[in-house]
Specification:
The protein is of the alpha/beta class. It contains twelve helices and 15 strands. It is 37% helix and 27% strand.
Length: 368
Amino acid sequence: MSLALRERLHAAFAPPRYLAFPFSGIDLSASGVKAVRLSEGIRGLTLANYTETRLQPGAFTDGEIIDRPAVVEALKTAAKATGITSANVALPESKAYLFETTAQGSRKVDWSVSVEQRLDELVPLPPTETGFDIINVGHGASGGNIPILGIGIAKRIVDNTLSVFDEAGIEVCAFEGEIFSMARALLPKGDTSTTLIIDVGKTTTKLAIVAERIPRFATTIGIGGHAFTLAIQKHFGVTEAEARKVKYENGIVPAPGNEDYLAAMLSTVSAIRDEISRRLEYWQSRASPTSAHEPVSQAILSGGNASIRGLPEYLEGSLKIPVRTGDVFANFASRDAWVPAPDYTESLAYATAIGLALRDDAVVTGYA
């Protein structure tokens, strides 16, 4: 990978930057642009400003910028609303590839050379069209082999994303994979647990298994919360806005007389559950407390559809591990010092953006 691309990519592993930290994050997804700016005070970090600018369906699809003018305008609007001129920016998980390998040597440059020589074995993209970065995730095994976690992504995705932010007048301080950001937001500093993060978005559900807040597995399921809304629309014959209201009020909780409604909802929820179960079972069957991959001990829900009533209990019954909705302010100042502006349900949609902003705090404190 060229030096210029490496400087742009960063991919969650950039060295400390002895500059003024913006504490800002921008998450570009199919539903729109979510932007946050943090403030650092005596008692810790608080949320200074946040906003969401919606995109029309099809403007940003499967990690690809389709309607460039619409995306640029949404970025400008979000940046103006939050007072952001520079930010850390998410790269789409659906376009990134995590890989694990080992490498000889004691320096990152040595490991990078080793990975680059066999990149075609680790990432299903042409090496000449792939950007990557790596991090040491353990101590050297016998023979001096260093366990390495890497992330690869097509260079054109990086270049296209960078160009729309340039056009919007926003300086990109660092790019980072979505799952790295989510883990940083949802898990407290120093957390060493092996956790399944389930991010239920509008059109997709992202899964990530993280250990010590570092993703070790990630995938995207092509079903999201909008499928719940469509199921309700079909069942009741109501508008999308009315269906969303029913979705959040009724959830998937059994109640007298709602058997048909519940069946319509569960037909969609069960598809997501089955996909999650299949991937979790694969991990659990190969994990052990004494190996590099420990069993998953809990699951955390995030995303705009994570707060659907009954969803944690429904998933917990199948996954056989505790399931709870997340707290995107887990690494902020105590609630005794401030009160978050977004309500709890709304805040769950900002996990990636908040994690991006927390990246700067992580660089300072050494918990990146």
